[in-house]
C-alpha cells in the first residue's frame, strides 16, 4: 500500500462523483485525488476548491490514460457512467499492483464502480406501474448470485457482468455499488440534481402529479449524501484499514453492494409532490402517455424494485438521512 494513498476518481463533475469528491475531500484531506475531467476551466474551478485534487484532463475514450493513471493511483472510484472499455482499462492499470495478501484467496479491493438496480427489472413482462404480486426485496447477501446472473440484455447487467469477468481475469478486486432512487441535493460543485428533478419538472409542466397504473411500484431509495458516505466507507475499509477489515470486504462475485435507506412507492411520491405544489388528485397515465412524455418514462415511472443493503449493514455502515420528504424539499426542493 502506498505511504500516502491516492485515489483516481472519474465523474467528479457529476451528481454522484461530485458528491464522492466532496465527501472524500472533507473526511480525508490528506488523500491525494486524481480526477478525470473533460474541461480545463472546470478542472481549475475544482482544483481551487480541493487543494488535494490533481485534474487529469481527458475522456473515457482515452484508454491508455485511464490505465496509466489507475496504475499510479492504486485505487479507483468510477462514477462516470456505463462504459465497459473504460472500466476494463482502469482494471488493467490496477493489475500493476500487488493484488493479493499472503493467504488471501480473494484479490485486494481496488475498484469501486457505480451501477444501479435497474438490472432487476424484467422488461420482458409488461410495465404496469404496480407492485407485482410475486415481488419481494432483493438482498445483496442472499440473492447475490441471482443479481449477477440476470439476463445480460437487462439494463446495467451486461456491463456489470463484463466488469466482473475482467476483474477476475486480471485478479483485481472490484466492488459494484448500486443505489436505487437518490434523494436530496448533490454535494458536488457542478451537478446538484438528477432524475428526481426531471419528474418534478414534468409534474409542474402538466399541472398534475401522475403515476402509471395505480402507482404501487416501489423503488428503494437512499440520500445522495449517504451514497457518498457509503462509497467513502468502502474505500476506507479497502485502503486505510488493516488486513482483517479488508478481508471482510467482498469483491467481484461477492462484491455487489446495494446502498439503501427505505422504500417509496410512486403513488406516495406523487401525492407528496402534489400536496407540496397544491395540485390536487394524482392522475393515472398509461404506459404510452409516459413514453410520450419521455422516451424512458415508462421505465422511470412505471417500474420499481426493492433492495436490502445487507452487506453494508454487516460491515457496520448505516445511513444517516432517513426522511425522504425532508430530502425532497431540501434547499428549495426542485425535485420529487
Ligand atoms: N443519479 C442517479 O439517480 C443514479 C442512481 C443509481 C445509479 N447511478 C449511477 O451512478 C453513475 C453516475 O451517475 P450520475 O447521476 O452521477 O451521472 P451524471 O450526473 O450525468 O455524471 C456523469 C459524470 O461522468 C462524466 N462523463 C460522462 N461521460 C464521460 C466521458 N466520455 N469521459 C469523461 N467523463 C465522462 C461527466 O462529465 P461531464 O461533466 O464532462 O459531462 C460527469 O462527471 C452512473 O453509473 C449511474 O448509473 C446514478
From TrEMBL:
Residues 7-237 form the NAD-dependent epimerase/dehydratase domain. InterPro entries: Epimerase_deHydtase (IPR001509), NAD(P)-bd_dom_sf (IPR036291), NAD(P)-dependent_oxidoreduct (IPR051783). GO terms for cellular component: cytoplasm. Transmembrane segments: none annotated. GO terms for molecular function: aldehyde dehydrogenase (NAD+) activity. This is NAD-dependent epimerase/dehydratase domain-containing protein. It comes from Saxophila tyrrhenica.
Amino acid at each position: 500500500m502506498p505511504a500516502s494513498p491516492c485515489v483516481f476518481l472519474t465523474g467528479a463533475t457529476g451528481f454522484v462523483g461530485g458528491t464522492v469528491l466532496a465527501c472524500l475531500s472533507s473526511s480525508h484531506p490528506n488523500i491525494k485525488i486524481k480526477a478525470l475531467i473533460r474541461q480545463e476551466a472546470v478542472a481549475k474551478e475544482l482544483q481551487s476548491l480541493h487543494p488535494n485534487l490533481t485534474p487529469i484532463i481527458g475522456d473515457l475514450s482515452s484508454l491508455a490514460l485511464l490505465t496509466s493513471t489507475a496504475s499510479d493511483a492504486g485505487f479507483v472510484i468510477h462514477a462516470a457512467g456505463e462504459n465497459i472499455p473504460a472500466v476494463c482499462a482502469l482494471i488493467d492499470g490496477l493489475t500493476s499492483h500487488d493484488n493479493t495478501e499472503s493467504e488471501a484467496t480473494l484479490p485486494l479491493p481496488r475498484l469501486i464502480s457505480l451501477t444501479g438496480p435497474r438490472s432487476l427489472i424484467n422488461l420482458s413482462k409488461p410495465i404496469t406501474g404496480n407492485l407485482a404480486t410475486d415481488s419481494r426485496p432483493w438482498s445483496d447477501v442472499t440473492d447475490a448470485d441471482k443479481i449477477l446472473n440476470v439476463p445480460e440484455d437487462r439494463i446495467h447487467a451486461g456491463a456489470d457482468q463484463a466488469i466482473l469477468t475482467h476483474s477476475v481475469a486480471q485478479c483485481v478486486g472490484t466492488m459494484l455499488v448500486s443505489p436505487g432512487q437518490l434523494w436530496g441535493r448533490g454535494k458536488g460543485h457542478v451537478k446538484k440534481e438528477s432524475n428526481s428533478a426531471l419528474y418534478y419538472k414534468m409534474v409542474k409542466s402538466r399541472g398534475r402529479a401522475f403515476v402509471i397504473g395505480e402507482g404501487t411500484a416501489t423503488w428503494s431509495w437512499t440520500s445522495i449524501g449517504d451514497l457518498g458516505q457509503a462509497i467513502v466507507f468502502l474505500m476506507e475499509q479497502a485502503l486505510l484499514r488493516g488486513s482483517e477489515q479488508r478481508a471482510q470486504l467482498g469483491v467481484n462475485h461477492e462484491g455487489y453492494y446495494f446502498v439503501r435507506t427505505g422504500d417509496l412507492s410512486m403513488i406516495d411520491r406523487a401525492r407528496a409532490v402534489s400536496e407540496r405544489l397544491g395540485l390536487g388528485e394524482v392522475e393515472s397515465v398509461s404506459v404510452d402517455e409516459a413514453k410520450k412524455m419521455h422516451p424512458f418514462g415508462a421505465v422511470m415511472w412505471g417500474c420499481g424494485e426493492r433492495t436490502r443493503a445487507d452487506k453494508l449493514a454487516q460491515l457496520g455502515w448505516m445511513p444517516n438521512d432517513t426522511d425522504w420528504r425532508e430530502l425532497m424539499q431540501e434547499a428549495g426542493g426542485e425535485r420529487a
